[in-house]
Amino acid sequence: MSQENIDHAISREYSAGFVSNIESDTLPPGLDEDVIRFISTQKKEPEWLLEWRLEAYRGWQNMAEPGWAHVHYPPIDLNGVSFYSSPKSMKDGPKSLDEVDPDLLAMYEKLGIPLHEQEMLAGVAVDAVFDSVSVATTFRGKLADAGVIFCPISEAVHSHPELVRKYLGTVVPRKDNYYAALNSAVFSDGSFVYIPKGVRCPMELSTYFRINEAKTGQFERTLIIADEGSHVSYLEGCTAPMRDDNQLHAAVVELVALDGAQIKYSTVQNWYPGDAKGRGGIYNFVTKRGVAHRDSKISWTQVETGSAVTWKYPSCILRGDNSVGEFYSVALTNNFQQADTGTKMIHLGKNTRSTIISKGISAGQSSNAYRGLVRMSPKATGARNYTQCDSLLIGDRCAAHTFPYIESRNPSAVVEHEATTSKVSDDQLYLCQQRGLNAEKAVSMIVNGFCKEVFKELPMEFAVEAGKLLEVSLEGSVG
Amino acid sequence: MLIVENLHASVDGTDILKGLSLTVNPGEVHAIMGPNGSGKSTLGHVLAGRPGYTVTAGSATFLGQNLLDLETEERARLGLFLAFQYPVEIPGVSNMEFLKAAVDAQREQRGEKPIDAVTFMKNARENCKAVDLDPAFLKRGVNEGFSGGEKKRNELLQMLLLQPRLGILDETDSGLDIDALQVVARGVNSMRSADRAFVMVTHYQRLLDFIEPDFVHVLAGGRIVRSGDKSLALELEARGYAWLEDEVA
Q1: A245-280 pLDDT tens trace
Q2: HEC profile of chain B
């Protein structure tokens, strides 16, 4: 297939790129302690949390932006970023869905995320985060019956301060890295989940993030605690309007799986990737990490198709004996997108096991890097890791890189790493076309086949969604 | 059905077809034979529209349409099917999914809705039986880890499901044992009908024992240098190609 055909097949328009005309209170750009005090006051936070934020901020001031990732972008001017934006109508906060601004509800409808419970996908509870604020959480009653807490973290600070205080920052410390520290200082909202002992969460939990306002950063913070023997499956989705300038998204996600608990965390990330010439798009600098206690399991599944630059390594600290960590990833880059993504599996406990399946797809002139660390500590007797890292190239102007780091300090630990790089071959496309499929359909089928091992880990509805998203993101890649 | 006139084609700047003419009517089976490098496979790919194969002169019409104006997938949807000599693997895409997409593409062309999954499954299973392929192959990746013979039978399975107007078989018999050859022959023979035609590219007379051709053509130096009936194939078997090449020269 010619480059022209490839280009056409992967160049589809970004469908979530509209701007909603919703009045909002947006803080003037720039960051200092007063901004942090303002955010804290807006949220009527207790003194300890303000101090926590300020401590993070002071630490951050002495930190430098990391430069080791295989991505290139001009320095970010944080003085041009607004650190807080809230829809005006949310001033006093809605008590129920009926009080949510109809314009907001309409926007979520447009994105295919209806917030009216009766129209929702059966069995999925949604928390919607718009710019800096959580605007609606559905199915709270039903969840409460099971003892599950699912609410905006700003609310959990008030309603469950003991849990928030006990776990916040225990997985990703305040000064973990430049962006995590920044997030700790200014985080606006995000989701909080607590699953009580032995409870299997009765439905999928989902958070939907949307950046709407121009020149704002989104700094959400998610904290999920699965108490002993509990199960939860959680999904996050993200979109943003098309804008010519870059926007910063620096989130922190902390997962705590106590003894025997299981957390499945799935992400479908579709932030605005920038246009075909590489203008605009989201800078997605995210720190995600989970701690797995004895006999517990943490599973990360991510489908990353958006953002201009992605910097993200959902990781597992396998602290307890027999704990299990999994990372399933599809990262697709097109046009001028850059992704440096992967995972860290830190084996501390005995007989801990981890699996990494990473599928990177590069098209256009994009760059896609897998970066992974597997560390077997001296005490991780009998630990095992299996890593499979596959790259698929579409066209001849893109790049794929693999940076695996393996540190084994225990002679009984077993680490396996497999890596492949392949191209969507002209012969494969020709076979498909000779059978009557057009180039777009052929490429999307081949790419979906390549990603199959990861898609099967996604909750059913979202696996279909992910397949479609891939198709859209690939548009114009075949020529 | 297919009219090829004075076709010239090149691959990577090398002229391969140099004035080939061929007329195929509905109901006919044509065998194309000839020495290595004579352009037999190129003919199939040029007709199917393989990228990189450039037609430099001549014409080809199929069912009244200018074939050379059509995209590869448009030719396929019109009912032109090429059974590949070396079918390529598509890992992770199940054979089932691939076959259904192909069938649906043809239905779309005819303005029909996609075939329902149950009917399709049933058809696919029956046709698996016809080509002596375990239905488990439907769940495997397209040609993924298939043996040479399994790949060929999978090509035949696709042809049976797509029911093309013109089937071009590019050395489908090469590398097959006698049992597999008979399976292929049975499949093709079952599809022979008054409104369907076949062009079979082959090296060996053996295939023609099982699928009896109406015409045998010898391709040498990019052109058809001799046409005849089945007896021509027997003559070639006995005498080889050298005498023909000498005659042409």
Answers
A1: 677 888 999 999 999 999 999 888 777 777 777 777
A2: CEEEEEEEEEECCEEEEEEEEEEECCCCEEEEECCCCCCHHHHHHHHHCCCCEEEEEEEEEECCEEHHHCCHHHHHHHCEEEECCCCCCEEEEEHHHHHHHHHHHHHHHCCCCCCCHHHHHHHHHHHHHHCCCCHHHHHCEECCCCCHHHHHHHHHHHHHHHCCCEEEEECCCCCCCHHHHHHHHHHHHHHCCCCCEEEEECCCCHHHHHCCCCEEEEEECCEEEEEECHHHHHHHHHHCCHHHHHHHC
Mean pLDDT within A7-31: 62
Length of chain B, in residues: 249
User: Cα angle at A448 between A445 and A449, to 5 degrees?
Assistant: 85
Residues of B in contact with A435 (CB under 8 A): 76, 98, 101-102, 105, 158, 162
pLDDT of B9 above 90: yes
Q: Which residue does chain B place closest to A423, by CA atoms? A: B90
Residues A74-86 have a mean pLDDT of: 77
Name, in order, each residue with C-beta under 8 angstroms of A458's C-beta and a sequence gap of 6 or more.
A266, A268, A301, A303, A466
> In CATH, which of 3.40.50.300, 3.40.50.970, 3.20.20.190, 3.30.750.200 is domain B2-248?
3.40.50.300
Q: Which of A433, A441, A450 sits opposite B92 (nearest CB)?
A: A450
Answer yes or no: are the C-beta atoms of A161 and A248 closer than 8 Å: no
Q: Which residues 4-43 of B have a C-beta within 8 angstroms of A?
A: none
Say if residue A212's pLDDT is above 90. no
Q: What is the pLDDT of residues B148-190, one digit of tens each?
A: 889 999 999 999 999 999 999 999 888 888 888 999 999 999 9
Q: Which of B168, B206, B235, B195 is nearest to B32 (CA)?
A: B168
pLDDT of residue B47: 97
The closest CB to that of B91, out of A1, A438, A450, belongs to A450
Mean pLDDT for A25-41 is: 83
| pLDDT at residue B48, as a whole number | 96
| Chain B residue closest in CA terms to A452 | B92
Residue A355, sorted as left (phi over 0), alpha (psi -120 to 50) or beta, turns out to be beta
Q: Is A471:A11 a contact under the CB 8 Å cutoff?
A: no
Residues of A with CB under 8 A from a CB of B: 1-2, 425-428, 430-439, 441, 445-446, 448-453
Judge whether residue A122 has pLDDT over 60: no
Cβ of residue B140 closer than 8 Å to a chain A Cβ:
no
The alpha carbon of residue A162 and the mean position of all alpha carbons in its chain are separated, in whole angstroms, by 26
Region of residue A278 (phi > 0: left; psi between -120 and 50: alpha; otherwise: beta) = left
Query: Tokens 């004579």 — which residue?
Result: B38
Q: DSSP readout, A212-247?
A: -STTB-B--EEEEEE-TT-EEEEEEEEE----SSEE
Enumerate the domain spans of chain B.
2-248
Looking at per-residue pLDDT, the higher value among A244 and A475 belongs to: A475
Q: Which residue has the higher pLDDT, A114 or A43?
A: A43
User: Which of the residue ranges A204-208, A428-432, B50-54 would you say has the lowest mean pLDDT?
Assistant: A204-208
CB contact under 8 A, A428 and B90: yes
Mean pLDDT score, B123-140: 92
DSSP 3-state of A439? helix
A445 vs B84: CB contact, 8 Å cut-off?
A: no
Residues 6+ apart with CB under 8 A from A452: B92
Q: State the best of A6, A357, A392, A431 to mutate against chain B, taking most chain B CBs within 10 Å.
A: A431
Closest chain A residue to B141, measured at CA: A449
> Crossing angle, helix B95-109 and helix B117-130, to 10 degrees?
110
Reported ipTM: the value is: 0.94
